[in-house]
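User: I'll paste a sequence; please echo it back and then give the predicted structure.

Assistant: Echoing your sequence first, then the prediction.
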Amino acid sequence: MSSVNKVVLAYSGGLDTSVIVKWLQEEYNCEVVTFTADIGQGEEVEPARAKAEALGVKEIYIDDLREEYARDFVFPMFRANTIYEGEYLLGTSIARPLIAKRLIEIANETGADTISHGATGKGNDQVRFELGAYALKPGIKVIAPWREWDLNSRDKLMEYCEKHNIPVEMKRGKKSPFSMDANLLHISYEGGNLEDPWSEAEDDMWRWTVSPEEAPDQATYMTISYQKGDIVAIDGEAMSPATVIEYLNKVAGANGVGRLDIVENRYVGMKSRGCYETPAGTVMMKAHRAIESLTLDREVAHMKDELMPRYAKLIYNGYWWAPERLMLQTAIDQSQDVVNGDVRIKLYKGSVSVVGRQSATDSLFDANIATFDDDGGAYNQADAEGFIKLNALRLRIAANRGRTM
């Protein structure tokens, strides 16, 4: 790489990124700016400031991005009912474009010519960070230490810390064997015994949800209110996007809702087994589909379902800032103008059930037509005969030509 003047590093304050600060200073002889994002991971981020200062960092950014994350990334994704490979609610994927965006903003503010991150060369995050960065600032340079250095084990990282007098916080107690990543929407688990897809995840691994077997014997009910496809209130109480997710995580998690164990196809080509807790997202998905079932035109709803897997793959693979994702988002958002009303949800021992839905302004459900009782002539059942015969015409022609099984 050509000479590097100043680097903005996505910095957690943990072992890997603390080593990266010193490594960048040593290898590239450059100034390092650190950026630590609070996106609801549940850990205190302010201690990262003292750690960065101890490493000689002069420009330190610590930003609370929880509301921006929920409002501008998570909520738009759920308007599309987005799910990857039929199961994954994209909790890690959707956080990366926000981090990439803020890295570029800080680079512009500080005059940095380079960004850096701690993602490994085996995973999806390197792709997501860098595709986002290049889309927002085409000339930006990127340093991905895990693709360059030979510090490819915890022991080597610890030796590097000792050699360069990098303070390492040694946490007491049992160390988790899993690689975990958390934000407002979910927490993920990889590694350890999960690398064997046949091995069941141990119950004490889960952090946000109780076991369904241990969940309360009484069901929890709630009413979720929507405006233009977004949740605006729960049980009549207005809430901000981030507060909605925090509340649903707490209540749904207490009812054993939101656990997932999958093998997914990474963009870089390998299969990976991971476990996820997404209590709020599980409820949001169910409730949003319920209010859409009442308010969306049939063909609009079906077209959304056809487009969704492509939209999900774009997010998973890191193309949030790509023109095709922006095009799809425009269409999705336009469809949500009529997605207004309330959904009543029942949470019970790991399950989410829709038990009611209503929309005073936008419901397309007409009880006079749908009833099994006398509809007073609202629907002429005799019309169905011609409808069926017209749709059967091509089938009858083919049968007359002997093209039946």
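The domain at 6-69+92-163 is CATH 3.40.50.620 (Rossmann fold). The chain has a mean pLDDT of 94.
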